[in-house]
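USER:
Try writing one entry.

ASSISTANT:
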Amino acid sequence: MFLVERKSLLFLALVAVSLSACTTKVDARPPAAFTLQPTPVLTPSAFPTRPAYAPGELVDYIAHSGDTLPGLAARFNTTVEEIRAANPHIPADATTMPPGMPMRIPIYYRPFWGDPFQILPDSLFVNGPAQVGFDIETFVQNRPGWLKEYRAYAQGASRSGAEIVQLIATNYSISPRLLLAILEYRSGALSNISPPDSRYPLGIYDPNYADLYMQLVWIANRLNHGFYGWRTGDLIEFELANGKLERPDPWQTAATVAIQFLFSQLEDHAGYQAAIGPNGISRVYQTLFGDPWTQDIPHIPVSLQQPPLTLPFRVGESWTLTGGPHTGWGHMWPWAALDFAPPGVESGCVPTDRPAVAMADGLVVRSETGVVVLDLDGDGDERTGWNLIYLHLATQGRAPLGAQLKTGDPVGYPSCEGGTATGSHVHVARKYNGEWIPADGVIPFNLEGWIAYNGKNAYEGGLIRNGQRVIASERSILASQITAGK
């Protein structure tokens, strides 16, 4: 929370004003099955031409939901200090910027800036509040395409096409509407009655990603990589198929950059330009779901703060930090998770009698193979408010769906269930309104005052408190052990 002082009052006043005012081979060919009927779409306004700005020139910017000063500094090639100097109303303890707030940002020109056309607002990228009430099964069944009859084995069960989309949307926390729009654009899944004639319906020709579920896993990993890379400022450029370097326009939304990054991996240069323009995925999305810009309700509030959390094991116990910040789900970014292993589990997938525990009071809203999700606002929906994700919990002893847990209550026992693991451990991560919260950032993972920090690579890094560091290691060495409640 901001302190009620002069700067903060001015900051919040500006918020009110602004809110009221404002190695895999892929098929680069356009899908023959893409048969959307002509439909009215928004006519995009003329795109601004970005000049070669003078060094440090101040430019106008309207804050997007979830923007942070470090992310903006990376995108505009400036520093947090220079942004603060140009915007003295921003309090020192600010984390996320107020959506819609006007800002002045010092910019330092970079060549090869990309297309400024914005495809999607950030609130419609995540599987968050905007997706509540959307019935995927009904939507798919009301379309003539092949997806309505599709059925395949995915993650331990036979599932319909709609169930597969729901599974990806839930696990990766990506909007099911966006996934459906991509499916339609790449394969005509909602409009073409003819089923795919191969195991690679999205044109990703990799035997490790055969069939619809794995094709969508490939898609979801790259979408999240682009979205969170832009959010944090770690992804400010990528290479296109023709070898051209592209730096996304600094004014872009994270959702648009996610889609740009995905199609840079899927298409040749001509296909990429078509996909990210007004008649590409944007047109498909609008045809299916309407104008996204009239549906944008900012989902990350001003200066978001993490609620108090304990370490995920019992007071007095010493566990090993086996994984520093790494992906919350899947591969690539965001690095939103930490791993802990109980004593007596030096290596291998062996049972333990030491449970992982609730880091805060909450309601169990998902309990399935390897996974428990704890909803901290108690509304029963993991797409809203703060949620804690526990992964690799054993089936036996796992907290049941609907259980109301208090801080310190058992959630389940560390194991190797629910994904790839080399030893029994628990993986924990955070989401707010459907958005993964990076472990190291302006809202760091804070467990009893232990603050997560990134390493050079995923799983490296560790925790720090009052100058004392706990360094992540798969070996149960003293430097990697941490004691709860101490």
In short: Residues 139 and 162 are 9 Å apart (CA to CA). Confidence is low (pLDDT under 50) at residues 1-10, 12-46. The chain has two domains: 1-305, 318-483.
